[in-house]
Specification:
six-stranded mixed beta sheet; Asparaginase/glutaminase_AS1; alpha/beta; L-asparaginase_N; five-stranded mixed beta sheet; Rossmann fold
Length: about 325
């Protein structure tokens, strides 16, 4: 078996607790690798690289640029697989981005995290790491996956709750017993996928991401010169307030019109193609918004961010592609 490449970015899985404060380990130690060797011996050869060393709540454009650059530079012929360690707070966002950009990856790349620092009681970090190693050994899957107590498509991961640290998965339950995939067949996963992106990405253009809530005043949102587009995540039935009698600043339709006058398109996440639709949804579409059908807001946001910041093809072409079973249907 070829060696496994482990890419470290910090996060809880790369942290220690000192005087009640959790922060990244500054000594550059690879605690999860050492814990694996202590438990299972030297049955696997690891190559370790530190890309970043931050808590994932501090993740952003520069961190994603470094990850993409580092993974782009990998000679996959040298490795059986890659494990990227990450913090849990922004795990869903990084997972979606890497899953889409590296849809073509010809060896398994597992993105993992931990609920507590390695070695602390109740930590699942070693379990997640060991599970990733085991699946790489099997050689059954290739491409990008997120592994946190179960294996998930990276483009469908929904951020964890703040109570049980459980990640959701948009539209399905993930792998069952690490073997049977729900929603996407093993045959579909095993097919070679065309490489779409070849160049590193520079995130200079921003997507304003707004999540709906009652009595929202859209006058509080002011797209600036760096705003390429707006993504609005509405209520369950893809609805939002359109009642101008409550004040024009409270109607999504009026906000859409204001953005369009500035040549900023507004994308509405989670609309359904089925009819009939609510009158409010019809008004939102009529106002000039661009529907994105049946997807998680995280996947829609990361796809828009990638589409507007890559230079290899038009935005509409990127949005129309299935980057990795992410279910972002663009119209």
């Amino acid at each position: 078996m070829k060696k496994i490449l482990v890419l470290f970015t910090g996060g809880t899985i790369g942290s220690i607790t000192t005087d009640g404060i959790i922060d990244v380990e500054r000594e550059g130690k690879y605690a999860v690798v050492e814990a694996y060797k202590s438990a299972y011996g030297d049955d696997v050869e690891f190559e370790c690289r530190q890309i970043l060393n931050i808590l994932s709540e501090n993740m952003g454009f520069s961190g994603w640029e470094k990850m993409i650059h580092e993974i782009n530079s990998i000679d996959t012929a040298l490795y059986s697989g890659v494990i990227l360690t990450h913090g849990s707070d922004t795990l869903a966002y990084t997972s979606a981005l890497l899953g889409m950009y590296f849809r073509h990856f010809d060896i398994p790349l597992f993105i993992i995290a931990s609920n507590k620092p390695i070695g602390e009681k109740g930590s699942n970090g070693l379990f997640n790491f060991t599970s990733a190693v085991g699946l790489i050994k099997e050689g059954k899957y290739k491409g990008v996956f997120t592994l946190y107590e179960r294996v998930m498509l990276p483009t469908r991961v929904i951020p964890a709750d703040t109570c049980r640290d459980r990640f959701g998965v948009y539209g399905y339950d993930g792998f069952n017993d690490f073997s049977v995939f729900s929603g996407v067949s093993e045959n579909m996963l095993s097919r070679p996928r065309e490489r779409i992106f070849h160049n590193d990405v520079k995130f200079g253009k921003r997507i304003l991401f707004i999540e709906g809530y009652p009595a929202m005043d859209f006058g509080c949102f002011m797209p600036n010169e760096d705003t390429a587009a707006v993504l609005y995540s509405p209520y369950h039935s893809a609805t939002a307030c359109t009642d101008v009698s409550k004040g024009k600043s409270y109607a999504l339709t009026e906000f859409i019109k204001r953005c369009i006058t500035k040549n900023i398109m507004v994308y509405i996440c989670g609309l359904k193609r089925k009819v009939p639709i609510y009158s409010t949804v019809a008004e939102i579409i009529k106002a000039g918004s661009i529907p994105i059908y049946t997807t998680s807001a995280v996947a829609a946001y990361m796809k828009l961010l990638l589409a507007y910041n890559q230079e290899e093809m038009p935005v509409k072409e990127v949005m129309g592609k299935d980057l990795f079973f992410e279910e972002v249907k663009f119209s």
